[in-house]
Amino acid sequence: MRPSISIEFEPVIGLEVHLQLNTKTKIFCGCANTFGREPNSHTCPVCLGLPGTLPVLNKKALEYAIKIALALHCEVNPLIKFDRKNYYYPDLPKGYQISQYDLPIAQHGLLVISSGGQAKKIRIRRGHLEEDAGKLIHDDSLGCSLVDYNRTGTPLMEIVTEPDLHSSQEAYDYLHILKLTLQYLDVSDCDMEKGSLRCDANVSLREKGSTTLGTKTELKNMNSFKAVKTALDFEIRRHQEVLQNGERVVQETRLWNETKGTTFSMRSKEEAHDYRYFPEPDLVPFVVDKKMIDAARQTLPEMPDVKLQRLIRDYQIPDYDAGILIQDPALADFFEQCAKANKGIESKKICNWIQGALLQELNARKKSVTTISLTVQNFTDLILKVENGALSNLAGKDVLKYIIDSGKSVDAVIQEKGLAQVSDDQTLDGIVENVIKENEKVVQQVKEGKASAIGFLVGQAMKKTEGKANPKKIGDLFRRRLLNE
Amino acid sequence: MKNKKIINEEVVRSVASLARINLQAAEVKQLTKNLEDILHYVAKLEQLDVSRIQPTSHVLPLENVYREDIVKPSLSQQEALSIGPYHTKGHFNVPKVIA
Ligand SMILES: [Zn+2]
Questions:
Q1: ipTM above 0.95 for this complex
Q2: Which of A276, A411, A428, B88 has its CA 20 to 30 A from that of A163?
Q3: What global pTM score does this model have?
Q4: B97 within a domain of the structure (yes/no)
């Protein structure tokens, strides 16, 4: 056996993201750009690659590409063209993919990630427009493969980083912030499960401190950000073992197998990547002038990093809270409206309600704040009622459920459900008395000095009132009776 | 110039394999000669002085030809499938490819 050499390695990772743009039509024809329809029901002679047809660029796709370029701080090329990337595969009816080779729409960009609390600049090498291929299904029982060309011609933006990422976590963080940026631009669903955002990763290892790159492998077939991270972890370990055994990494494409948790060599496509790019004769060049770039710039929303800083500054909320709000621009908007409603509620309190109860209800319903009937008025009313003791915290959460589903006012729901907080001493004292009778053991413990056992008794009393009692008052009553406080 | 070989049998075989065309040995020979002749003919262009001509990717003096993002009717599934010989459940059947 070879003695294992203990060298410290550093992973070098570059990511390639393919983003389906959510234009109404495909990139070069008027077929609807849809998902999940009957197979081969959205095709035409252009996207089926029939002889004699001519592609015409969708202006919207170019506009979206310019928006993405600007958001990623890229230089927008003043002159772009399209090229044919030739390869033979059944998902590609023309035998070539219309892509961009030497004059892509975007170059030399930058995305700032925050990894482990530290800001780090990740360079974007390029971004280009191209068409998506069809969908292949492999059916063993039929002994053949099946093709659906609905996806063929869907506009794609390919976004490629420089090899600036040095851990699987950094790759994960990059994807997270990239997705968020793209969601703010509203140019794509960014749904990895549906395939509207896909990610391939290039990874190699080099000796720590060295500047020469090692042999890389390309990873494909990861269906979630988490899968990208675990696939990279696996591959980094695999490279490390190969190198420490004094062997060489083979340059190849490897597929991630989610169930087995391993990558395996994709031998079939290893046959020379000889794409024989040449200029697409069916499409004329495009001049991207200042007017087009300015127009795109006008449509750019406030980007997540800028929004984050503004929320912290304007509303004096903690970084963490602002960080959660910016994950969903609609939620951040909702927060701002609530804070501006000026009902004298602390901004941080609104944050707590959004991050806690509201997000829980939204997640349970798989909905967004814009698709439920919750108004700023209703939500702030509710928070206020809990703040000044008219509703218990628990009952408040209950009311939230009802107003989300019914759209009724807080007062109406409180009346309907009889949820108003019980605060009058007489009623509460009666309940406390009953709880004490029913829990002799615990009462004994409290009297013997185990003050924490009062919590249990308060819980029992709350149960009896279905959460309507004021827990602070109940606690006081127990202490008065049992500890003479 | 005239006698300089531009293409050889190996290139022809590699191009054929990329295009998934199965060639017999005799065809490779024949095609090598044909392609060599064609490329020699086109190579005449290399004698022109193009030093004062701007390179271009396109022959037409046109740029920025777009289409608005408006949906046009597509073919029906039946019409689309009719251009292929075999189909199953709305899909085109093709020879098995490995994922
Ligand atoms: Zn089409």
A1: no
A2: A276
A3: 0.81
A4: no
